[in-house]
Amino acid sequence: MSDHRPHRGTIFSERAEILHHEAHPGDQFILRVRAPQTAAAAAPGSFAHIQCDPSLPMRRPLSIMRADPASGVVEFLYKAVGDGTRALSRRTAGEHLEMMGPIGRPFTPDPARPRAVLLGGGVGLPPMIFLADRMRAIDGQRPVVFLGSEVPFPFPARPSRILLDGLPDGVIAAMPLLDDWGVPSRLTSLQGYAGCHDGYVTDLARAWLRGLDDDARDEVTLFACGPMPMLGAVAALAREFELPCQVSLEEHMACAVGGCAGCTVEIEEQGRRSMRRVCVDGPVFDAATVVPLAAA
User: Fold this and answer.
1) Per DSSP, what are the bridge partners of residue 77?
2) Where are the CATH 3.40.50.80 domain residues in the chain?
3) Which residues share a beta bridge with 32?
4) How many other C-beta atoms are found inside a 10 Å radius of the C-beta of residue 177?
């Protein structure tokens, strides 16, 4: 009989060495670890479940921002918001972390729709950076990235060297790493940061989409990660332009491997509703099937 649990045998338990741990404004941190098994198997949208400190038995899920199979290095961007992540923020280079990864169903680019629009908000930035990294290596894929944050971005924004048509005048701030990769990006915030759009990522995506002709728009897929209100706006945008859309859901997780069913979301497919676990049935879902996003 076939195994209906495809995550079995794909999650590794590793003792990861901290290589670098960097603090940024807004209680944000970039954590770089050596975890060869996770790095070799990670895909955009997957995450790791990390023991933040030996004194805390419960692990915390962190989205993977970059993974290099050649060096075995995995990077995370996270925000310290509770006891676990605050304890993690105090860990230093040379220490080791117990972690499980990579976990979850990743994003799936469509070769027939190479104009990918990647939308990340807050701690939803890491999967979009990972996805852009992988997409730029795929012949024909042309990702465009819109990132939003209400705290300072964890990188020094700079004016983009890459032109994007259809956007409001003065919206020129970009993520330097993406610009260096040749991937166009723009930043948005309600905090008045220089060069950023004063609004939401969906504002920029809508403006860019309206600048495309029908044939070009038929090549677009939306990919998004962020808080639920943002994902609701992205799902509405997908319906507005009749575009396929994949979203990575953020949810509190206890076990992160499907055992506790504490991170469920209601999904509707072919007229039937069921509960799915965000950790292993997701975190990436077709936005059109996620019931909480349907009425957004």
Assistant:
1) 30
2) 115-248
3) 20, 75
4) 14
Q: Are 76 and 62 in contact (CB under 8 A)?
A: yes
Instruction: Name which CATH class applies to 115-248.
Output: alpha beta
**Per residue in 211-225, pLDDT tens?**
999 999 999 999 999
CA 252 – CA 283 distance, rounded (Å): 11
What residues does CATH 2.40.30.10 cover in the chain?
A: 12-103
Considering the segment(s) 12-103 as one domain, its CATH architecture is Beta Barrel (2.40)
| Tokens encoding 111 | 């070769």
Find out whether 92 and 109 touch, Cβ atoms under 8 Å. Answer: no
Long-range contacts of 181-186 (CB under 8 A, 24+ apart): 181/132, 181/133, 181/136, 182/136, 183/132, 183/135, 183/136, 183/143, 183/144, 183/145, 184/144, 184/145, 184/160, 185/132, 185/144, 185/145, 185/146, 185/147, 185/160, 186/145, 186/146, 186/147, 186/160
Angle at 115 between CA 218 and CA 239, to 5 degrees: 50
pLDDT tens for 35-66 read: 999 999 999 999 999 999 999 888 999 999 99
Condensed to tens digits (0 to 9), the pLDDT of residues 257-269 reads 888 888 999 999 9
Decide: helix, strand or coil at residue 32. Answer: strand
Peptide bond just before 102 cis, omega within 30 deg? yes
Residue written as token pair 């077709």: 286
Helix (H, G, I), strand (E, B) or coil at 23: strand
Distance CA(38)–CA(207), nearest Å, equals 38
